[in-house]
Amino acid sequence: MRFIRHTRRLTAAAIVMIVVAGGAAACRRGSQTPDPGLPYASGTTSPKLSTFIFKEEGKLYLVTVGVNATRFHDKDAFIPLTVTVVNKTTTAIHIHRESFTLIEPVSGARYGLASLDEVRRQGKLSYDAQLMDLDHLAMKLDIYDRTSARFFPGTGAIVNEQVELHQFQYILDNLYFPHPEGGLLGRTFELHISGRGIEGPLFVVFTVPDAS
User: Fold this and answer.
1) pTM of the model
2) Confidence band for 146, pLDDT divided at 50, 70 and 90
């Protein structure tokens, strides 16, 4: 009987250890932040940095997509996305106009960057620049160094659309895409980013809320 009671005590203790270990492992898994580009379930967006900023952050990169200005362009031919790309790796990454693709995941429609001349004619560059939500980005980007990127500068300004990002450098710019077919507000999109030096898929899933 002593042997049996002793065995039961050991079994109960073992069970407690397994439960605690399992719970700790689950906590660790829950606390880990996946690298950008991991697949999302249908209808799920990337985490939010603020009301109008979606983000993906891992050990390699930080990418944000802001839609504060976007929501006021439902009737326009071109829409802005406030995009930040941070390189945390020791490998330089190269970003250019072809690096950015807007995707509507249901239809699979893909959109590259719009023409600079067409966006200038739309006449809202200055207005959109005031809605970049910089206050919410400032604290997140304070420890990194900004590199100049001007994909859509105002008239007379110099274009800079070939960017090399070294470790702990970032770009922040309003990027313009053709207005997606089928509407804009309330829909889910993906912004994919590619370029020499970028490891694996890199994208942010976001929705564009109503302007009200």
Assistant:
1) 0.80
2) very high
